[in-house]
Amino acid sequence: MTNLLPDSEVSDAYVALRARVVTLLRALPESTGDRVVPHCPAWTVREVVSHLVGVPDDIINGRMEGVASDAWTQAQVERHRGKTLRELADSLDGLADQFDVMLPHFPPMARSQMTMDAVTHEHDLRHAVGQPGARDSVAVTAAVAWLRRWVHGKNVPHVETLFTAGLSEFDLLRCLTGRRSIAQSAALGLPIDVLGAVQAGSPFRPPLEPIAE
After folding, report:
1. Which residues of the chain are in CATH 1.20.120 domains?
2. DSSP 42
3. Fold of 7-132
4. What is the mean pLDDT of residues 52-73?
5. What is the dihedral of CA 83, 85, 86, 90, to 10 degrees?
């Protein structure tokens, strides 16, 4: 069983990725907020950011009923509907003082899962607005460590072959979280039968058609 990254490293990784997202948002033209995010096709850039704001906001305010459900995340989108990208960046940045003192007290799996979700959406946003970067961040490493622990809990035969195919941590993150099509994952050398068994019944569903990274 693989180990998660140390608690302090995961906390620092989340803080750093939040800063990257805030910086990215403040540099974007407002018109990019209406772009559809190819990896989250039901949401625009602005709506994905609303989710990134909504998670720490809900944790701070104790809105945890239905956590991680579609209804929970959609409520975050609706709560911030109408805000500009700059306002969303300010909202995300403004949560730091309250949220960062809470981070060290989260259960390790929950902290790493939250970081995995946030860094996945960071790269969803980067793809949507054509601003790649930070593919070797500590947040990516923390996310892959959580995914490896999650994958091993699925009791799928030969699951370790997902991690011995020679992929970078970034490619593993994108494939395991359903950001690469089956054809794309196969081309990278992943065992598709194992990947499909791991993703079955999870929120991580690969796109039907390849999405260029």
Report:
1. 7-132
2. E
3. Four Helix Bundle (Hemerythrin (Met), subunit A) (1.20.120)
4. 95
5. 70
Structure tokens at 132: 């790649």
- Two structure tokens written together for 167: 């992929």
Residue 1 clears pLDDT 70, i.e. is over it: no
Radius of gyration of the CA atoms of the chain, in A: 17
Q: How far is CA 58 from CA 62, 72, 90, 195, in A?
A: 6, 9, 16, 32
Region label for 92, one of left (φ > 0), alpha (ψ between -120 and 50) or beta (otherwise): alpha
Alpha-helix residue ranges (DSSP H) falling in the chain: 7-27, 45-61, 70-79, 85-94, 96-100, 108-129, 138-152, 169-176, 182-187, 192-199
Residue 213 has a pLDDT of 78
- Residue-level length of the chain: 213
Q: What is the pLDDT of residues 141-170, one digit of tens each?
A: 999 999 999 999 999 999 999 999 999 999
Beta bridge partners of 37: 40
